[in-house]
Design goal:
Blueprint: H1 3-9, H2 11-30, H3 35-58, E1 66-68, E2 73-75, H4 77-102, H5 110-126, H6 131-149, H7 156-187, H8 192-198, H9 205-221, H10 231-237, H11 240-265, H12 270-292, H13 298-319, H14 322-347, H15 366-369, H16 371-385, H17 391-405, H18 409-435, H19 448-460, H20 469-481
Antiparallel strand pairs: 1-2
Catalytic activity: a quinone + NADH + 5 H(+)(in) = a quinol + NAD(+) + 4 H(+)(out)
Enzyme class: translocase
Domain NADH:quinone oxidoreductase/Mrp antiporter transmembrane: 128-422
Length: 484
């Protein structure tokens, strides 16, 4: 085995691992005062890993990649694309965190280090070529996430969010492990390629239950129905920068991991997993749309929006084609931009004492007091609803087009009909901002970093985003092609 090649292929994770260990020493030596410098250095480390992932993605010789460490890890264009999205979301989450936590005196240097640990786990997830790598990466990400959710120690909601996430996450991990053990028992290996070659034809009850349990464990990680129950509570209770991180980077990692497991390990069982994915996709779309209607907390509403969008993403996977996976990846880019932009807007919701506001009623009349923030909010809401000509419409169009091309017209029709339900609560937010009597609760506390990020992402999901299609479409197609 050539360990030099293995080390080169895993360079994004190695950069982050070395950086995180050094930053832990800086944090221990510098104490709380080192939080800002550790954050800056963490951003630089993530940028360095992003650069390596970009090299792997854009260099044609790396498109189909290769295996590292005896087939435990796979470097290819698909994993590199997912890592770029993950690192981008992590960088944005770090940029907006200090101001939020410093308002309550809660920011500590452990926060950016935990984000890096989570990013290392997510990188392993999207490049996993073996069930063991899958589980180690997933647990590294999850253990960091449990601490991040309960980062504000004197906040009961934050502690409750961390505890709920931990308990339910442990349950999901148990299901996943049991499923992996059953699959291993019948396939004789934990390697995705060997499992794919072994589990062919009609499955007996044992491996079938194993496949179902593995998919159930992964469905929890992407907060898909019926394993979504933790999402609204954790999103509401966790600090808003943490929620923004949860809704973007881990979502990308879990969805990319699900795609890789299904295509690489269970590709020969299309009829088995396709039924499950179709049900989960439709259930997530419908429940995410209906359950959000009665929400009065903006973070809970965005949690159900996340569940809703996962359903649309899974329609692309249900197609089971390279076109479907390419559409998923394209939609993921738009989803990350819309979600991060929305949560940064939520961070701008503060009263005169600097206390965060989360109720929808506090947004009333925002268009009169902060017209720029109101306009950005409206752009993100309309784009999440998939209303043309905003860029969110294009993401939905691509996954529906892939479903139709795969002969799944009824799935596309039901998905389109359900998206109309979801549009209701997005439009309700815009109505409160522009047409309700001003509440005058949110004061103008704009920050240059946050305002700049909001403006950048609002422009990206506006009709100007269509200009990126010629550059982005070939990349997503190439990333999807390597799986097939």
């Amino acid at each position: 085995m050539d360990y030099t090649i293995s080390l080169i292929f895993t360079m994004p994770e190695i950069i982050l691992t070395v950086s995180s260990l050094l930053l832990l020493l800086v944090a221990a030596y510098g104490g709380v005062k080192s939080a800002n410098i550790v954050t800056l250095l963490s951003i630089l480390a993530l940028a360095g890993s992003s650069l390596m992932a970009l090299v792997f993605l854009t260099n044609p010789s790396y498109e189909f990649g290769g295996d590292a460490f005896g087939g435990l890890y796979r470097m290819d264009a698909f994993g590199s694309f997912a890592k770029l999205l993950i690192y981008f979301a992590a960088i944005v989450s770090l940029m907006v965190a200090p101001r939020f936590f410093n308002a309550g005196g809660e920011y500590r240097p452990e926060y950016p280090v935990l984000i890096i640990f989570a990013a290392i786990g997510m990188g392993m997830m999207v490049s996993a070529a073996d069930m063991l790598t899958l589980y180690v990466g997933l647990e590294l990400n999850s253990l960091s996430a449990y601490v991040l959710a309960s980062f504000i120690r004197n906040d009961e909601r934050s502690a409750e969010a961390g505890l709920k996430y931990f308990v339910l996450g442990a349950l999901a991990s148990g299901m996943l492990l049991f499923g992996i053990s059953l699959v291993y028992g019948f396939a004789g290996s934990t390697s995705f390629s060997v499992i794919g070659d072994t589990l062919t034809g009609d499955l007996s009850t044992g491996p079938l239950i194993g496949v179902v349990l593995v998919l159930a464990g992964l469905a929890f990680k992407i907060s898909a129905v019926p394993f979504h129950m933790w999402t609204p509570d954790v999103y509401e209770g966790a600090p808003t920068p943490v929620t923004a991180f949860f809704a973007s980077a881990p979502k990308v990692a879990a969805i990319a991991l699900t795609v890789r497991v299904i295509i690489d390990a269970f590709g020969g069982q299309t009829s088995t997993w396709q039924q499950i994915i179709v049900f989960v996709a439709l259930a997530s779309i419908v429940l995410g749309a209906v359950a959000a209607i009665g929400q009065q907390n903006i973070k809970r509403l965005l949690a159900y929006s996340s569940i809703n969008n996962v359903g649309f993403l899974l329609i692309g996977l249900a197609a089971g084609t390279a076109q479907g996976v390419s559409a998923m990846l394209f939609y993921l880019v738009i989803y990350v931009l819309m979600t991060l932009g929305s949560f940064i807007c939520v961070m701008e919701m503060r009263d005169k004492d600097g206390k965060p506001l989360e109720s929808l009623s506090s947004l009333a009349g925002l268009s009169q007091t902060r017209p720029g923030l109101a306009a950005a909010f409206a752009v993100f809401m309309f784009s999440l609803a998939g209303i043309p000509p905003l860029f969110g419409f294009w993401g939905k169009f691509l996954v529906f087009d892939a479903a139709v091309a795969a002969g799944m017209l009824p799935l596309a029709v039901i998905g389109i009909a359900a998206s109309v339900i979801g549009a209701f609560y997005y439009i309700k937010v815009v109505k409160i901002i522009y047409f309700d009597e001003p509440a005058n609760e949110i004061v103008a506390t704009g920050n240059k970093t946050e305002n700049g990020l909001i403006a950048l992402m609002a422009v990206a999901v506006s009709p100007l985003g269509y200009l990126a299609i010629p550059a982005l479409a070939p990349v997503t197609s190439a990333a999807a092609r390597v799986l097939f």
